[in-house]
């Protein structure tokens, strides 16, 4: 199978069974080094991935030659890339030959199965929405990602795509988030909650209370648990937390800050005295596991839900481990048939919601 690149170039995939991932090699603070190094890590354990790099071949090619698992990886060359300072409208208007646009286009054209970028979030969302389009019945796409908890992991959405939402948006986010969680974890009935200022039914804005009333309808097929508070985000008692993009983004940045604070304080105090250093020797395995559990790199890879194709946003400042995780997220979603599953879930939910409106 061949995929179109700029000015007549093409990608040739010899094995149709492989999962094809388009990588925006020029997106992110540490591109293209981080992108290539991360891809090399994931390619070592995922031989079925066909990774294609979009960007400046004169910068990418030397890195590929030094890698162990990407010597034969393909490059679609372009000199242009999206700037971190570009607004979404600027990126769309001027960016038709950027590495980000071309990587997305390869998926839209059916020549790749998913795109991963660590570039400008607003530009990636705008370009993906323009080229992929939203699924039938989806009012707004949302950004979802996983967080560590005291138990396993928790998914939250929206993380910034929609700063203001109504009840219909939140209900759709719940359906999307449940399908997303189920696809990546295999959980049969993820527990879904609405983030609010209290658990009581009378708390919060009217649109949140209305969303809660709709989600309580069992015909929707959402395992709705009611309102949850900020303190519930880390307990592991909820699997999918639904909120507007403003609150979700603040929660995300707060969680990242707390993780960094905890790691810094732990390292500082363990090095404070001879006794603490000796204590570390006895507890180092437990501390190592704790650090791994809260390490944001292992949860890197936010997904744009509600689009007709898979787009994964890596944190712009991540390292090779974090980028490798983002690529793994994209591959797993393709492998698990995420798009057909979530499309069917949205269709069923919208049928129920229309019936609810007709019944008054």
| Unreliable residue runs | 1-14
Strand neighbour order, sheet with most strands: 5-4-3-6-13-12-7-8-11-9-10
Counting DSSP H or I runs of 4 or more residues, the number of helices is 11
Tally of strands: 13
Describe the main β-sheet briefly. Answer: 11 strands, mixed
Our Rg estimate from Cα atoms comes to 21 Å
Label the structural class.
alpha/beta
The dominant shape is globular
Strand content of the residues, in percent? 15-25%
**What is the arithmetic mean of pLDDT?**
86
Percent of residues in helical segments? 40-55%
What's the order of the H and E elements?
A: EEEHEHEHHEHEEHEHEEHHEEHH
How far do the termini sit from each other? 51 Å
Topology of this protein?
Blueprint: E1 2-4, E2 10-12, E3 19-24, H1 33-45, E4 49-55, H2 57-66, E5 74-77, H3 88-94, H4 99-108, E6 114-117, H5 121-132, E7 142-148, E8 153-157, H6 167-185, E9 192-195, H7 206-215, E10 224-228, E11 240-242, H8 245-270, H9 274-294, E12 302-305, E13 310-313, H10 320-335, H11 338-359
Helix pairs in contact: 1-10, 3-5, 4-5, 6-7, 6-11, 8-9
């Amino acid at each position: 199978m061949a995929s179109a690149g700029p000015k007549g170039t093409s990608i040739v995939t010899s094995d149709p069974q492989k999962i094809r991932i388009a990588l925006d090699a020029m997106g992110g603070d540490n591109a293209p080094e981080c992108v290539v190094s991360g891809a090399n890590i994931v390619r070592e354990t995922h031989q079925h991935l066909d990774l294609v790099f979009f960007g400046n071949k004169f910068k990418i090619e030397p890195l590929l030659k030094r890698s162990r698992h990407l010597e034969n990886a393909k490059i679609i060359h372009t000199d242009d890339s999206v700037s971190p300072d570009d607004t979404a409208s600027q990126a769309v208007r001027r960016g038709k030959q950027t590495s980000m646009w071309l990587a997305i286009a390869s998926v839209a054209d059916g020549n790749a199965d998913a795109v991963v970028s660590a570039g400008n979030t607003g530009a990636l969302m705008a370009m993906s929405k323009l080229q992929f389009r939203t699924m039938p019945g989806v009012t707004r796409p949302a950004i979802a990602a996983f967080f560590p908890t005291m138990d396993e992991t928790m998914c939250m959405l929206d993380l910034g795509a929609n700063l203001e939402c109504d009840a219909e948006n939140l209900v759709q986010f719940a359906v999307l988030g449940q399908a997303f969680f189920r696809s990546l974890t295999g959980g049969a009935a993820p527990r879904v909650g609405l983030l609010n200022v209290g658990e009581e039914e009378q708390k919060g804005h009217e649109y949140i209370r209305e969303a809660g009333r709709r989600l309580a309808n069992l015909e929707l097929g959402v395992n709705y648990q009611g309102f949850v508070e900020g303190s519930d985000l880390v307990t592991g008692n909820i699997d999918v937390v639904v909120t507007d993009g403003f609150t979700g983004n603040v929660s995300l940045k707060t969680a990242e800050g707390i993780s960094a604070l905890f790691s810094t304080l732990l390292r500082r105090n363990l090095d404070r005295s001879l006794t603490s250093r000796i204590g570390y020797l006895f507890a180092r395995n437990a501390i190592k596991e704790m650090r791994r559990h809260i390490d944001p790199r292992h949860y890197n890879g936010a997904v744009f839900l509600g689009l007709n194709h898979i787009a994964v946003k890596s944190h712009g400042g991540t390292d090779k481990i974090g980028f490798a995780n983002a690529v793994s997220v994209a591959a797993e979603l393709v492998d698990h048939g995420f798009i057909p599953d979530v499309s069917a879930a949205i269709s069923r939910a919208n049928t129920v919601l229309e019936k609810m409106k007709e019944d008054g």
